[in-house]
Specification:
The chain has 12 helices and 7 strands. By secondary structure, it is α/β, with parallel strands linked by helices. It has a 7-stranded mixed β-sheet, sandwiched between helices. β6, α7 and β7 (about 170-180) form a beta-alpha-beta unit. The longest helix has 20 residues, at about 145-165.
Length: about 250
């Protein structure tokens, strides 16, 4: 089972769009996939069109529910929904030795059930995000071509170094994924060079595939269908398909 965290400390860079389409695209490639919404805004849950009461990722982290009872079997992949209560996890989780290991422990029960687990996170470094880092093999960092995204990437790298040093030596940054990319602008070309230098210093890469600005991707939260099914001939579908092939080649090498 390969675990993947989609993370950037900068919001609005396409984290949930990437998590949603990555999970759906892997499923289309014959993989068994579980997506976990760890953002209190519950964006991934909304993308999936899920609006119901029941077990959530918050209950899994607090150990109020077993992880298996929180899994919803959906058309495009399996999902553990998010909850606004995730905002209170820093206050509600007791100070204990395993406080930061709740997700890792829960996922150990699913070790043979899935090929991939994709975790969508809030743009903040709280106890929930650290839990996800403790449990993951790879981090994918979506980023727009601007200074704030550069800062967000640097913050993720610092967090990964700390987690790798003290708890999870296997965590790797799979790469930086350029999103909302406008290939014909000078700014985007300049930041591609900046991100390549940044990635080199982090011991990772910028994915060769960039996700171009595409209105169809912005429509997905209200459509509740991945880009491959909604607009299979769009640039959004083309870019995410290329990215997923590149990603899989890297992690399954």
């Amino acid at each position: 089972m390969i675990t993947v965290v989609i993370s950037n400390k900068k919001g609005g860079v396409g984290k949930t769009t990437t998590a949603y389409n990555l999970a759906a695209g892997l499923r289309k490639r014959g993989k068994s996939v579980l997506a976990i919404d760890l953002d209190p805004q519950c964006s991934l849950t909304k993308f999936c069109g899920v609006n119901k009461n029941g077990p959530t990722s918050f209950g899994v982290i607090t150990k109020e529910v077993n992880i298996n009872s929180a899994i919803l079997k959906l058309e495009f992949f399996d999902l553990i929904p998010g909850s606004p209560l995730l905002n209170s996890a820093d206050q509600n989780l007791p100070e204990s030795v395993n406080r930061l290991m709740r997700i890792r422990e829960a996922l150990s029960e699913l070790a043979t059930d899935y090929d991939y687990v994709i975790m969508d996170n809030a743009p903040a470094l709280g106890v929930v995000t650290v839990n996800a880092y403790m449990a993951t093999d790879y981090v994918v960092i979506p980023a727009e071509a601007n200074e704030l995204s550069t800062d967000g990437i640097a913050n993720v790298f610092e967090s990964v170094l700390d987690v790798r040093k003290y708890v999870n030596p296997n965590i790797q940054i799979a790469g930086i994924l350029l999103t909302r990319f406008k290939p014909n602008t000078v700014l985007n070309r300049e930041y591609t060079d900046i991100f390549n230098e940044l990635a080199k210093g982090m011991g990772t890469k910028v994915f060769k595939t960039a996700i171009r600005e595409n209105v169809n991707l912005a429509e997905l939260p209200s459509i509740h269908v991945p880009i491959f099914d909604y607009k299979p001939n769009s640039t959004g579908a083309e870019d995410y398909n290329k990215f997923i092939d590149e990603f899989v080649k890297g992690v399954e090498k």
